[in-house]
């Protein structure tokens, strides 16, 4: 008896009826984009959910990152982790700036503030940090470095939907700007989409304008803008899905807790993300497969695949090893030991709302005894 494949994630979807009701509104209004009525409702509902006041919706997080960097006029060096999804560094290049890689903390796998400080030169203009797996960066230390050196601090918060800090405040309020992704694979999705969280209304409106070709009015174009607008269709999906997201995160937490309990005694395996932390979103369940485990990470990955269980090596390879970045001085592997170790040892186990408990037990059984 073979079971269907289990992938690392599976998107959540809103009730089709709710989307159809919104589609009907769109068909009546014939407003399809350009900050339409559904987008405005979604923006307000999202702000209320996240506990933030100023949101600029975009068509994906990659362009949101580009827009954020362009908004701050960043064309010099941007310090960023090599252990992330490739879009983080690509956005820096598309903005016309240059990534400079700094090593990560070996425990949290987020940018190490001490390593950031070592990479600062007179050409450094910004830090682009990533809340990896939704675990907040050391926002205090990074904020302190940015202030002392006059740098902009931007967060790639693609993994951090709904994540709150210890005081219950959205983690997206740290730094100058934060960018969320609503891609299908994330905790919350609009099929494709994203948002920039801004500190004030003026910045939000400036971002909206930069993402609408730089147009001010019928005859005035202020700057070389881009088109990053979210359509009414994508906003409708978001608006209809938002009421479900708490339940989805609660389901993820239940699955993560089962993994943690079942794997806590396995020698050589470390659960990367703390469980039971208030305000976490359980976006991934990464384990670090190190010394003391009977096989290497890649052997475990292959063993799970044999049974149709598709864990993923996020993030391997390191961004700094990719052909378009590996010749940068900061890509020297000798300076990035913690990132390299994470890339070689981390495996993200399948986690998503609705993961069949039978499948989760199959995954657990293999991780417990891979041979
Ligand atoms: C998914 C992701 C992105 C890109 O988001 P899109 O909305 O797909 O463009 C950027 N950074 C990180 C860390 C991501 O995981």
TrEMBL record:
One GO MF term attached to the UniProt entry: transaminase activity
CDD domains tied to this protein: AHBA_syn
Pfam families: DegT_DnrJ_EryC1
Classification via InterPro entries: DegT/StrS_aminotransferase (IPR000653), PyrdxlP-dep_Trfase (IPR015424), PyrdxlP-dep_Trfase_major (IPR015421), PyrdxlP-dep_Trfase_small (IPR015422)
Family: Belongs to the DegT/DnrJ/EryC1 family.
Organism: Albidovulum sediminis
Organism phylogeny: Bacteria, Pseudomonadati, Pseudomonadota, Alphaproteobacteria, Rhodobacterales
Top-level taxon of the source organism: Bacteria
Protein name: DegT/DnrJ/EryC1/StrS family aminotransferase
Alphabetical keyword list: Aminotransferase, Pyridoxal phosphate, Transferase
